[in-house]
Amino acid sequence: MTSDRTTMCRVTLPNKLVFTAEDAHAPGIPPMRLRRLLRGGQIVRLRKATYTSSRTYERIAHLPRGDVVLATFAAQNRIAVPTWVTGLSGARLRGLAQPHAAAPTIELLAQPGTATPRRYPELRVQVARVPAAHRDELFGVRCTTTARTITDVARRHPLSTTLIVGDHALRSEAVTSEQLTACLADCDRMTGIVGARTAIAQLSGLRESPLESESFALFIEEGLPLPECQVWIGRDRVDFLWPEAQLVGEADGRQKYACDGGPPEDEHGDVLWREKVRAERLEEQGFWVVRWTYADLLHRHALLVRRLRARLGPWIDTR
Predict the structure, then answer these.
(1) What is the pTM of this model?
(2) 121 and 152 share one domain
(3) Domain that includes residue 164, residue range
(4) How many structural domains are present in the chain?
(5) pLDDT tens string 127-142
(6) What is the pLDDT of residues 257-296, one digit of tens each?
(7) Does residue 266 sit in the same domain as residue 311?
(8) Got the DSSP string for 188-253?
(9) Domain check: are 76 and 174 in the same one?
């Protein structure tokens, strides 16, 4: 008698990177056989009723962003019309920075008249115009261009999220300011475009981490004077500088403590010592130093704002 494993090995899976239960039924794989293949490890379930072969999964999942590629293929395979991945999931596909604890929801765009907006578990289908100039393909996945991806993030997400994604794209030269300006003009009548323009105007390739980007968003939202970013003061480069107030802001930038040209030490005590020496060097030049971490920004942001206001008082716009 032929064993289940031998029988499974003879099954011909659909010749697709990702396939549905309906795709499997066409070459003669009924639901019961599909369940056996799943239990036997020959296929992997990516989302409800959507699968890939174990060989394909092993080949792609371990690659950089391979899990995102497979999840996006699975999501697009569920929708009967052409779609393009965009927004935060499009940024994730491109390896751009993400907000702290970003949801894994796949955001897809469909052309008007081809679909209606819908929500599924970890999948959101939106309807908006996607001109040919806004279309791209990455790892075989249909996606929007980097400029359109950032524009869609700015249309639908908070300022801090836009700065995290957009700052990284500019810093890594994945997009230019000119491309963003052109994309905003193309999306002129889309929902959320006014807020998107305001957010994208604040992007900068100078900020070097999501923490710095999110901090800058906080300054804007709290009505604080906006600092200069990544400024050299003697031998030290600081994250933020309010020159009129002689105030330095440091977003936990320990990687920059090796200002003498050597690599930072691994030992925690050495890092703290460098931090102390660096702060003293700045203070000797007449600067106040305010330092914060991600925990401060997430859980104690009101206290951080009070600390900054205490030093920036005379320069805060009270209109």
Answers:
(1) 0.82
(2) yes
(3) 72-200
(4) 3
(5) 999 999 999 999 889 9
(6) 333 344 444 555 566 777 778 888 999 999 999 999 999 9
(7) yes
(8) TTSTTHHHHHHHHTT--SS--SHHHHHHHHHHHHTTPPPPEEEEEETTEEEEEEEGGGTEEEE-S-
(9) yes
